Amino acid sequence: MNNHLGSCLCGTVSFAIQGEFDSFYVCHCHHCQKDTGSAHGANLFSQSAKLVWLSGPDKVTSFTLPDTRHSKSFCKLCGSALPNTQISGLLVVPAGCLDTEISMLPTAQIFSSSKASWTVELESVAQFDGLPK
Question: Which domains does the chain have, with CATH numbers?
Fold first, then answer.
């Protein structure tokens, strides 16, 4: 059984995931673009893994967009995305909040018809290991 550790940006909230992930989707829908402030969401999904809050569970809040299945949990202090259990029977874990490496590659990109136009040719854009000088 795999165990993964994760936390928010400010370190107030930490958690463990006990079990396996079933899938890993990179989602380009407009809801994910809005809630990440980026081109896509990157979430791991599991129907069997268990979420254990190690610290700061009282600092976690959730939001579900009315009339949709789009839901997210986040730290009340720093706003970092955190694991979500608002969809019955499904654990959704934002890949970026994990502190341990995951071995699985994304299963698929979804809602690709909504891809941000500026992401199409990212491989051809200059890359730096840190901030450019």
Answer: 3-117 (2.170.150.70)
